[in-house]
Hints:
This protein is mostly helical. Helices cover 43% and strands 0% of the residues. It folds into 2 domains: 1-33, no CATH class; 34-138, Cytochrome Bc1 Complex, Chain D, domain 2 (Orthogonal Bundle), CATH 1.10.760.
Amino acid sequence: MKALVALLPAAVIAAACGAPATSSDGNAAAAQLQSPGDPARGERAYQKCYSCHALEPGRNDLDGPTLHGIVGRRVAAEAGVDYSPAMRRFAERNSRWTPALLDQLIADPETLVPGTSMAFHGIPDAQERRDLIVFLERGKPAT
């Protein structure tokens, strides 16, 4: 108990000075808050999507719908897209693409939409997904 009391002032000072927090196992990186999304990094992450998804509005000449305006758009509602039965069923339960829902889809499409025709294995890195979503929210490539 005395050791904990002795460490308390050091922890308070470290927190006040901006030192990273540590998790219960002492891992500072694991406990650190993840940074907000970076659209420039998100534009690079989009390179994993561009073979199936355009960014231009209404451009649905690829396998998937355009990602233009995806955040806030109704799920499976892009005109001219032949959505899979799995995605249409998913849209019955989920009305709009929110950042949180997109994060789940980008992390693991098959888990979120079982039977999806989306041939993408996902992006496991949470920061990379956040960057991509911020880039998509912005609505256009960086200049």
